[in-house]
Structures
1.
Amino acid sequence: MNQIRHNWEPSEILALLQQPFNDLLYQAQQVHRHYFNPNAVQISTLLSIKTGGCPEDCAYCPQSLRYQTRVEKEELLALETVIASAKQAKANGASRFCMGAAWRRPKDKELAKVIAMIKAVKALGLETCATLGMLEQHQAQQLKQAGLDYYNHNLDTSPEYYGEIISTRTYEYRLQTLEYVRSADISVCCGGIVGMGESIDDRVSLLQQLANLPKHPESVPINLLVKVAGTPLAEVADFDPIDFVRMIAVARILMPKSMIRLSAGREKMDDALQALCFFAGANSLFYGEKLLTTDNPAQVKDQQLMQNLGLTPQMEQHCGQ
């Protein structure tokens, strides 16, 4: 069943994206059932531990200090606040607790405070994930020593379209951080965002970048742009929901052992669209009413959806590659 590959050609990926919808879903579901329990979903909770004031100019992000949004700059949360949030997340069924900070890259003194948070969350029996911006090699090693399980660092879009979205950080910097994380033996959470005005060729290129990494990311978040007033992408055209499902399905086929995560944008998705995404191979989601600073479905709504679909929460399945 579906050989694990790291040499996908753009023409192959485009052919998958453009095949008849039912054929694509059938293929993706076959792959999904081969590697995973089709009725199990891994649940994560994401907490913004340091909000706003980011010097980057990512066109989608309300936390950039360059844009006039309603997000105010805040200091790093206290350790006790993070522990309380992690305990609540665990009580609500999350198996992984993710901590995000709006930094270009953390300073060592800041990282020391995050390391204390990681150790405290690990002590609660939760998997830990962090997204802190770019890392130096020694910082990745320190995070590993602290017990960090996952590091999130998205590619966002294709190399070709990247300059239209971000000018303050190069694609190569993102790939370098992923290399440091891998060399420290931390699992990788890496995906992208669709609906930013990119072409289908850009979506193909993004998927190719992810699928042709030396090792597939253990988690692949597929984000739908959340349009925020004050950001450059606030008025971009809505993304076709069927094309979003196609992205989920092709990601599942290209990276059959990875967790494919429904991430940003779910608050605007109805139950039928999310059900299609699960059928197409999504098997991870973020639980909680906020994803850093943007809205996410209420937990009771997610619980009802999972009950209606017969989905059960479970810890992540680790598949060797």
2.
Amino acid sequence: MGDPKGFLNTPRELPKRRPVDVRIKDWKEVYLEQDFTDLQKQAGRCMDCGIPFCHQGCPLGNLIPEWNELIWRNEKEEAIDRLHATNNFPEFTGRLCPAPCETACVIVINADAVTIKQVELRTIEEAFLEKRVKPLAPDRLTGKTIAVIGSGPAGLAAAQQLTRAGHTVAVYERADKIGGLLRYGIPEFKMEKSIIDRRIFQMEQEGTRFRSGVNVGVDITGAQLRSKYDAVVVAIGATNWRDLNVPGRDAIGVYQAMEYLPWGNKQALGEVAAPPINADGKDVIILGGGDTGADCLGTAIRQGAKSVTQLEIMPRPTDERPDSQPWPTYPMIYRVSSAHEEAGERIYSVSTQEFTKDGAGNLTGLKLVETQLINGKFEPVAGSEKVIPADLVFLAMGFTGPEKSQLLDQLEVEVDERGNIKRDQSYATKTEGVFICGDAGRGQSLIVWAIAEGRSAAASVDEYLTGNTQLPSPIEPTAKPMMV
């Protein structure tokens, strides 16, 4: 283990966030750099448990105690090797994962968890800084070709693993640039897009080919892909957003979060001066209390919103872990993101009854009612109705599965009762040579599950094409996602 008394003598400490009045004036990431010696002390808090329950919390099977000890001992090169052994993109997960590994940390039984996520992030950032992240091109090519549809974390993980196995891999993305929701759904202040670009550069050096601006199913059919490639991996995510069918939904000014956030990222990168959906000077309401809602909140603040209110139908979570969610499960507790520190109001236990609008159809407000959870149903509280003004509303209520596009028909795949694409234990569909990974088959979940599924699907594809595989397979598709 690292420091034998580290977890007793060293308190948990995370890097500081930049002052609110400074960071809301730009789009840069919010965290200041933590001194490396302080990070080493945090890594030294790891107990090297006999049974490391942090592994139970991580779908990737990250070797957490090992690279914690290596960082504590200042053995950075060995640490990044151990981290990359299970995770293709620790720079993504270190920024975006909600860290179920930390809530499963044994220290949490009676103290604060090891800062696993921060040690992970700093390990990969030190490796990039010291130029230790190098292309891992295969020694030989197999002659097999694979198309990966979708360039989110699942698709990128599958593509990198298969390229390193010696296959020729092309990644298709319908958006202008590679990255999927990593690029267009994650705000710049949570992850600067240069972080994606440097990893894409590494993958290109390894041999992965990227085809952006190609809408598979329209620009090229699924049948054409199947005839051109030996295997097809579908990693299109679960982008079919949940809507709200209430009176006034057609009001001008009501948008889905994923209609709004891409424009915020384009604005942050200077690709547009005035985005068509802009919160500047407006009263903004966000429906949904999760991470996507917080992303909308931080974006609206940086655009200069007059006011921002985030609504949630659920009651306010407790500050402490509920008895019904004991360690090592991931608890539903009250959390404050960086965006919540900056501005805005959070209102719980309310339901939208109607969007109000003027004679021209422009949104003017929301009619709300307070709710009570009775016998598993949200019941309105009599006499609690009220109208709050709004110029913009963003719906951040999650996703219900992959989009039902022409592509699914062309590939002749089936969907299950939840709307996800059916696949078997090897991630294969009933269509020969077509495999599914990530949210498209699992449903909306975490970035760590996406990467783990991409790695596992790659192993199945490699075995399908060659008869055997040496690629790791961290999970099976029937494993239940961690609820967050």
